[in-house]
Amino acid sequence: MAETTIKAEARDLGPSAGATVGDFIALMKPGVMSLVVFTAFVGMMVAPGHIHPVLAAIALLAITVGAGASGALNMWYDADIDARMARTAARPIPRGNVTREEALAFGIVLSIFSVMTLGLLVNWVAGLLLAITIAYYIFIYTMWLKRRTPQNIVIGGAAGAFPPMIGWAAVTGTVSLESILLFLIIFFWTPPHFWALALYRSRDYERVGVPMLPVVAGPDETRRQILIYSVLLVPLGAAPGFIGLGGIAYLAVSLILGGILLALAVKVYRTREGREADYAARGLFKFSVLYLFLLFGALLAEHLIRMLIAG
């Protein structure tokens, strides 16, 4: 019954029935985009050196548009499976509000605009990193990995980890150890974040043949992997406090947040039956978003306080 309802609601035939601005905004995945832009902004703010405020605004706009381009191209390619998944059936293409051709054209235009803007007006290191991010997300993750391997999230997660590195490069024109560390934090954060979602959405992925880890290896192995990556993430999250990128306040916040995340991961690992297992996975998924936001927020806040003290 659920699948019939999804198929009835999901339409991807013929021309769109008049797409609205809201439909094209939805193609850009604004929820995902907001976290991408925030981590890029933090990377820009904590980078050594100075960037003119106008150029900083241009860089953030380009990164925002580039993230939106990735979302639109992802929805173009995945429209067939989006139409059959409860979580994605209300997206603009399955509902018939936007055609796949419109989404493809929209994504290509945004991609070119964002990369060229960042490269020409800021610097080409940042522009190249943005181009790599978009290409990696579409060609490596969406087209190659997502439907072929349960490690899709692990390898493909690199696409979502680039933004703070792009922000850093926008200021410095370089890639450094510090920016690589920010990349690694998001890279190791991605598996427990998405696998927690996959645990309670596994039927969706199974229905459309996407080999997410719970579908291929089972929920118990997924819980084990979530715990392993969470254990690795906690010291990585604290690492900026040990290399001078963050201070004592950041270190304290990162350890508190890491402790909560690890406790939730342990709860997911131990809770394996019924609704309680779904609740545990949902709890970890929701907190993981808050974890990343607060972790980068603490880094930003401490940096701003240092600037105020320094005058």
Helix content: over 70%
- Helix/strand/pairing category: mainly alpha
Q: What oligomerization state is this entry in?
A: single chain
Shape: globular
Q: Supply the number of structural domains.
A: 2
N to C succession of SSEs: HHHHHHHHHHHHHHHH
| CATH architecture heading of the largest domain | Orthogonal Bundle
Describe this structure as you would to a colleague.
This protein has 16 helices and no strands. With 311 residues, it is mostly helical. The chain folds into 2 domains: 156 residues, UbiA prenyltransferase (Tetracycline Repressor, domain 2), CATH 1.10.357.140; 135 residues.
Primary descriptors:
311 residues, mainly alpha, Tetracycline Repressor, domain 2, 2 domains, 77% helix, disordered N terminus
Write the layout of secondary structure elements.
Elements: H1 2-9, H2 21-27, H3 30-46, H4 53-77, H5 79-82, H6 100-121, H7 124-145, H8 152-156, H9 158-161, H10 163-172, H11 177-200, H12 202-208, H13 213-216, H14 219-238, H15 248-270, H16 274-310
Helix pairs in contact: 2-4, 3-4, 3-10, 3-16, 4-6, 4-7, 4-10, 6-7, 7-10, 10-11, 11-14, 11-16, 14-15, 15-16
Brief summary of the model shown:
The protein is mainly α and 311 residues long.
